[in-house]
């Protein structure tokens, strides 16, 4: 049920963007910055951006979000520029959207609806499509009445319901049934993901999650670290579906790194709720790699936006290594030096050129080494499964074979320590 940005005859949508600055609530430059971001989102969804309008007012108006007079000014702008779409950089209530469409005479959508449309266009996997569909239905449910305004005058008499009301109730029940079905399917997805994580834990692999503002360079970084070929493009939300790759660290220990969906300011709450199956990868990780676009003029605000989402998904206490990306640019190099003094543990890199990737891998090794215990073991050769597990999941520093046993000096992942304890022969 996603919105589309093309009509049946493939006519490109022509959009006017509207931002609202409420004096005293935030700074004017913040609103202008998110409005520029909205322009990137709109263009990425396939629409042509005609112009941007910033409304300055003292309060939010209940009826039209903006004042009636300002709405009429925008209506005139719509006629002058032959626009057929108006996009608001704020969330509108169903009533506000309905009232604005009545005044403006064209379709009106808000930031959440736009982001949901982009996600619907780009999700590739079954899991991603399920999550997007759930978010769209959660968004649509309270807005059904707006879709049926053309039937509002068809009222029945006492004891009767007009056809519009009947259809509205039927659609509401149908969407509620779909939401229940999607939630059930996503519960199964979460169960499968939990089983996969338990399997990785049994092998002792460290789990690392990449997070960051959209277009910070997460996919490019994972491609660089793992030699992967994940789709990476200079646009917002270029990739949505999570991808996991194995990376061997300089100390010969393997780890699994998962690229997750990019975050953004004003990330729709329904989207966070629907993507919990994916975002649980972050909450369950041993280490979070926060990829930061140091070249962006509002890099601090982007960092704050990521931290807000981490808090919302219960991952704010996870150990974090900040990756100060894009130091191949003059802006990025200067900002990286400044941010390194204020952030916690960090390393500056360029995912595009590969500059200091070795330093990042060294930091990763150092961050994860606390998850392993140094043990000296004497394991019977008959314990072939354990020996194979140690070869794959532990770091073997020394090995010597004496008769029926193997003597090993190994760094063992903590989940495997109880399994190895019976074969420990000396304190290390």
UniProtKB/TrEMBL annotation:
An example of a GO molecular function for this protein is:
GTPase activity
How does this polypeptide assemble, per the annotation?
A: Monomer. Associates with the 50S ribosomal subunit.
Per UniProt, where does Mg(2+) bind? 219, 239
As for what it does, the entry says: GTPase that associates with the 50S ribosomal subunit and may have a role during protein synthesis or ribosome biogenesis.
The Hflx-type G domain sits at: 206-372
**GO CC annotations on file:** cytoplasm
- Please give the InterPro entries that the UniProt record associates with this protein: G_HFLX_dom, GTP-bd, GTP-bd_M, GTPase_HflX, GTPase_HflX_N, GTPase_HflX_N_sf, P-loop_NTPase
Read off the PANTHER family from this record: GTP-BINDING PROTEIN 6-RELATED (PTHR10229:SF0), GTP-BINDING PROTEIN HFLX (PTHR10229)
Q: Does the keyword Nucleotide-binding apply?
A: yes
What's this protein's name? GTPase HflX
Principal localisation: cytoplasm
Q: Which family does it belong to?
A: Belongs to the TRAFAC class OBG-HflX-like GTPase superfamily. HflX GTPase family.
Its encoding gene is what? hflX
Q: Name one Pfam family in it.
A: MMR_HSR1
What SUPFAM superfamilies does the record point to?
P-loop containing nucleoside triphosphate hydrolases
What UniProt keywords are attached to this protein's entry? Cytoplasm, GTP-binding, Magnesium, Metal-binding, Nucleotide-binding
Binding residues for GTP, per the UniProt record? 212-219, 237-241, 259-262, 325-328
Q: Where in the cell is it found?
A: Cytoplasm
Q: Which cofactor does it need?
A: Mg(2+)
The UniProt entry, under CDD domains, shows: HflX (cd01878)
Species whose genome carries this gene: Tichowtungia aerotolerans
């Amino acid at each position: 049920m996603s919105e589309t940005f093309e009509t049946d005859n493939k006519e490109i949508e022509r959009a006017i963007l509207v931002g609202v600055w409420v004096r005293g609530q935030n700074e004017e430059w913040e609103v202008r910055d998110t409005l520029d971001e909205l322009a990137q989102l709109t263009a990425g969804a396939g629409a042509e951006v005609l112009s941007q309008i910033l409304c300055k007012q003292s309060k939010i108006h209940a009826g039209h979000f903006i004042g009636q007079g300002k709405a009429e000014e925008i209506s005139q702008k719509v006629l002058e520029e032959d626009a057929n779409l108006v996009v608001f950089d704020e969330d509108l209530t169903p009533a506000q959207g309905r009232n604005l469409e009545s005044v403006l005479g064209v379709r009106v959508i808000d930031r959440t609806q736009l982001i949901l449309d982009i996600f619907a266009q780009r999700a590739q996997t079954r899991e991603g499509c399920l999550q997007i569909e759930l978010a769209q239905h959660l968004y649509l449910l309270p807005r059904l009445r707006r879709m049926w305004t053309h039937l509002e005058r068809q009222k029945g008499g006492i004891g009767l319901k007009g056809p519009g009301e009947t259809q509205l109730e039927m659609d509401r029940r149908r969407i509620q049934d779909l939401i229940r079905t999607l939630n059930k399917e996503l519960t199964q997805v979460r169960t499968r993901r939990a089983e996969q994580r338990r399997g990785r834990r049994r092998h002792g692999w460290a789990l690392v999650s990449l997070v960051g503002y959209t277009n910070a360079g997460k996919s490019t970084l994972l491609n660089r670290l793992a030699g992967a070929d994940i789709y990476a493009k200079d646009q917002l939300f270029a990739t949505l579906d999570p991808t996991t790759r194995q990376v061997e660290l300089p100390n010969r220990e393997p780890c699994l790194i998962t690229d997750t969906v990019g975050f953004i300011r004003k990330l729709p709450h329904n989207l966070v709720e629907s993507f919990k199956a994916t975002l649980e990868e972050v909450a369950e990780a041993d280490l979070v790699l926060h990829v930061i676009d140091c070249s962006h003029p509002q890099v601090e605000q982007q960092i704050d936006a990521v931290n807000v989402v981490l808090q919302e998904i219960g991952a704010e206490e996870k150990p974090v290594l900040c990756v100060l990306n894009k130091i191949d640019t003059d802006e990025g190099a200067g900002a990286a030096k400044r941010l390194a003094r204020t952030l916690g543990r960090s390393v500056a890199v360029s995912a595009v050129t590969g500059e200091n990737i070795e330093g990042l891998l060294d930091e990763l090794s150092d961050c994860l080494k606390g998850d392993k215990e140094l043990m000296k073991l004497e394991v019977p050769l008959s314990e072939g499964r354990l020996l194979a597990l140690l070869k794959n999941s532990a770091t073997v520093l020394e090995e010597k074979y004496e008769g029926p046993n193997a003597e090993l000096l190994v760094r063992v992942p903590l989940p495997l320590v109880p399994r190895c304890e019976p074969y420990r022969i000396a304190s290390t």
